[in-house]
Write a structure and sequence with these properties.
single chain, alpha+beta, two-stranded parallel ribbon, 4 helices, 2 strands, 51% helix
């Protein structure tokens, strides 16, 4: 799948500067694999720290890389049910 999607999406992805997003009106959850080299936390953590949002949360998956839903499916599901769902219902 990645062999087809990355070449198609990468040019557009390179033009997006997510650091320009400084404030949002909705909850933001970042569910990150601790061993992810595709989307390194060194980029996400500083951005999330500066972001203004009604609720923001970083959820780590210690045994995962880029595919936490597949690498830790039970824990990923629990994060959605216990953390993301209540925020979605509230906001």
């Amino acid at each position: 799948m990645g062999q087809l999607s990355v070449p198609a999406l990468l040019p557009d992805m390179r033009r997006v500067d997510h650091t320009a997003i400084r404030q949002v009106r909705y909850p933001v959850f970042m569910l990150l694999g601790r061993h992810d080299l595709t989307t390194p936390s060194s980029v996400i953590e500083p951005w999330l720290e500066k972001l203004q949002a009604p609720l923001k949360q970083l959820v780590w998956f210690e045994q995962s890389a880029h595919l936490a839903p597949h690498e830790e499916p039970g824990r990923f599901l629990m994060a959605l049910v216990q953390q993301v769902r209540p925020a979605a219902l509230q906001h």
